[in-house]
Amino acid sequence: MQIVESTFNCLLYFCHMETNRQKKIGGVIQKDLVDILQGEVRKNNIPNLIISVSKVSVTTDLSIATVYLSIFPQNKAAETLTAIKSNAVLIKHDLSQRVRMQLRKVPNLVFFLDDSLDYIEKIDSALAGKENPIENRDLLERRRKS
After folding, report:
1. What is the pTM of this model?
2. How much is the mean pLDDT over the chain?
3. Counting CB atoms within 10 angstroms of each CB, which of 37, 45, 99, 131 has the fewest?
4. What is the rounded CA–CA span in Å between residue 66 and residue 56?
5. Among 56, 51, 58, 75, residue whose Cα is nearest residue 19
6. Which of 51, 11, 27, 42 lies closest to 103, judged by CA?
């Protein structure tokens, strides 16, 4: 039983490691996607919108690239993500034109919102004591329920 468990843990470990090739392809895609998305924002004269590509993960068979986007301001994030997802085929075509000398086949793009900055902000506010349960007793009751 112990041998099977340790083998299973090793398999889980190796499934999540990215190879150097995956990292390099992810970096190339990330750099060019930033140019494409920011170029579209400038070309369409959309004021006060910043789109950054925080991470690109490529599957081991290089067929799917998961793209994490940070969109500012947050109130436009869902609408902008929907527009980007609906134009994923055009974005992939633009990307393929840019990387045709580096990649034989461009992976399919899957877009997600990167909410890590919101998560960090919540942790910072909790550590800063903005939600102090000693001063605000209502917070204690809420924490007990969850």
Report:
1. 0.72
2. 82
3. 45
4. 6
5. 58
6. 27
48 φ/ψ angles, rounded to the nearest 5 degrees: 55, 45
| 67-76 residue pLDDT tens | 999 988 888 8
Mean pLDDT of 28-47: 92
Tokens at residue 128, please?
């800063």
Q: Where are the beta strands (DSSP E) in 43-142?
A: 50-58, 64-72, 108-113
Q: Return the axis-axis angle of helices 20-43 and 88-98, rounded to nearest 10°.
A: 110
First to last CA, the chain: 36
Other C-beta atoms lying within 10 Å of the C-beta of residue 25: 21
Strand residue runs (E) in 17-119: 50-58, 64-72, 108-113
Instruction: Report yes or no: 98 and 32 within 8 Å, Cβ to Cβ.
Output: yes
CB 139 within 8 A of CB 133: yes
